Amino acid sequence: MKQTAKIILLCMALAILYGIVHNQFTVRISLEYFTIGHRALISSTSPTLMGIAWGVHPNWWVGLSMGVLLAITGRAGKWPKRNARSLVKPLLLLFLVSGIASATAGILGYRLANSGTLGLYGPLASSVPASGHAAYISALWMHTASYTVGTMGALIISLLVFTGRIACGDANGSGTEEQIQKQAYHP
Question: Global pTM?
């Protein structure tokens, strides 16, 4: 039970940390994405404080969901159990890949918006200053890519963790210490 809680808390902490860092970039790319595109979380318009608030608010539950999924796939059943420490590297890799995908999507969205291929429409177009449309789209694409890659990555890691546990267990569900340790560094 202790390891289950550690896995969940690890995922929550990493998701919140990633969200805070990610939003420190996106809030500086488009403050309007947070002030016009979302409801106010705090009464400040400080980019740093908004990045922190929006890094914690939507990401604690993402981390909780990911943690519950990884705790189930990593600990349930008769197979060798995974501990929180064995998931640190795969999770760090996931957040790195998510950050790269986010940056790539942001650049692509910005370029497409600047070329006139993409644009803001309806009330949003009139609420966001025209000079900020490309930046708004960039931030939107960054967030979309981050959540998409994070979700897909969490599902992939969970599947690899579960199938890895099955593969290193014997007919009784137990594996040697060497098998479990070897598998611990490969999702």
Answer: 0.88
